[in-house]
Amino acid sequence: MALRDVINENDEVIGQAEKEEIQQKKLICRVAFVIIVNSAQELLLQQRSARKKAYPLYWSGAAAGHVHSGETYEQAAARELKEELGVTAPLRYLGKHFSAEDREMVASFLAFHDGPYNIERHEIEKIDFFTLERLRQEMPGMKVTSFLERALPLIDGKLG
Questions:
Q1: CATH tag, 4-155
Q2: N or C, where is the chain less crowded by C-beta within 10 Å?
Q3: Can you tell me the distance from the alpha carbon of 115 to that of 159, in angstroms, rounded to the nearest whole number?
Q4: Rounded to whole angstroms, how far apart are CA atoms 50 and 56?
């Protein structure tokens, strides 16, 4: 199990710990979050696996995961994209926010890619493509992660 950096609300490293200790003590750690956009300007979203402890069957970005100790947000985003979808693509930084409910600092990225996608079935139930308009219409009836909700406003003006 990889060590994670423990941080404060200003994203300053104050130590390292294993996943279990971070969860038990409600420490703050870092997460990288990626949304893929294809050439048709559609967002690739994943429905998280039913086997996931956190947010099973919720819709989220294309890939997300915890940042390992000593790793940058961008390195973690690239690693998660490769692990979950088999994708290597340039990343564009969108922004960062603190998720108080999850005790995580989340950095969001955009990647432009048309596939193919090799879905990691232990992580992902299914993927789908959404235009921003369709997503905004359907989102009120969907179970979505707070990461996705917080990242969407950061995408405006970044497509095309």
A1: 3.90.79.10
A2: C
A3: 17
A4: 5
